């Protein structure tokens, strides 16, 4: 589903991504771990060109992603749920979910509303459809952001710190949503600092530091016998926090 070869990204003299390579199969759940500044968020933002990469090859579903790529079409295929949700405060939950399908996919209003309600139901937030974001808790806003992304019917979902500032019950809900997406064949890549969340959802752990991938492991191996000293130090620090 995703192929990355020697991908790199520069910010002036700072190397954010240092010629990294890996593959993701359809329906897999990839969790990207690493210290702050390691390139995790930059990496996933390259997949829908919010952050254009400066070199290497990135392909999604067999198509090369570069400056010639139709961004509207790409972002309909690759959904991103931001850490701060980015909901439109002046629109209701339902209107937040129907806006992009209507404008981008030209979905008729009634059809867009039916689809939005279906996805809001899937993430257990349908009863809040006519409220505004300010009336919702952080966990509820997170669910709305996921439903909004699903309304574009993506094949890949990117999550940037989806459990930040959520309580344990809300985190459990996000775990279920990600697992449900995988069961539907949607590929997910998730950046997180929440180790319990990572354990529960990952098929593979991708560990980064200083723009490089140091380790790609199954969760059981990574959390019990990490292959690199840097990963061991990282886990020790996270456990002691």
TrEMBL record:
Domain ABC transporter: start-end pairs: 2-235
GO MF annotations in UniProt: ABC-type amino acid transporter activity; ATP binding; ATP hydrolysis activity
Gene3D superfamilies (UniProt xref): P-loop containing nucleotide triphosphate hydrolases
Pfam families: ABC_tran (PF00005)
UniProt entry keywords in alphabetical sequence: ATP-binding, Nucleotide-binding, Transport
Keyword ATP-binding among record annotations: yes
Family label: Belongs to the ABC transporter superfamily.
Protein name as annotated: Amino acid ABC transporter ATP-binding protein
Species for this entry: Komagataeibacter rhaeticus
């Amino acid at each position: 589903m995703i192929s990355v070869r020697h991908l790199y990204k520069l910010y002036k003299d700072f190397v954010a991504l240092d010629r990294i390579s890996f593959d993701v199969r359809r329906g897999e759940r990839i969790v990207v771990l690493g210290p702050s500044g390691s390139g995790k968020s930059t990496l996933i933002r390259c997949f829908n060109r919010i952050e254009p990469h400066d070199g290497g090859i990135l392909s999604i579903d067999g198509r090369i992603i570069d400056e010639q790529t139709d961004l509207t079409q790409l972002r309909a295929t690759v959904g991103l749920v931001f850490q701060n949700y980015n909901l439109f405060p002046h629109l209701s939950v339902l209107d937040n979910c129907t806006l992009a399908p209507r404008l981008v996919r030209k979905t008729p209003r009634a059809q867009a509303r039916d689809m939005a309600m279906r996805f809001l139901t899937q993430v257990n937030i349908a009863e809040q459809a006519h409220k505004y974001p300010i009336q919702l808790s952080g966990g509820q806003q997170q669910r709305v952001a996921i439903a909004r992304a699903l309304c574009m019917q993506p094949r890949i979902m990117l999550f940037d710190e989806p459990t930040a500032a959520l309580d344990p019950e809300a985190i459990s809900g996000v775990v279920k949503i990600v697992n449900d997406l995988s069961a539907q064949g949607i590929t997910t890549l998730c950046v997180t600092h929440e180790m319990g969340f990572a354990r529960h959802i990952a098929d593979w752990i991708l560990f980064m530091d200083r723009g490089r991938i140091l380790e790609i492991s199954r969760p059981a191996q990574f959390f019990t016998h990490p292959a690199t000293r840097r990963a061991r130090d990282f886990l020790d620090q996270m456990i002691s926090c």
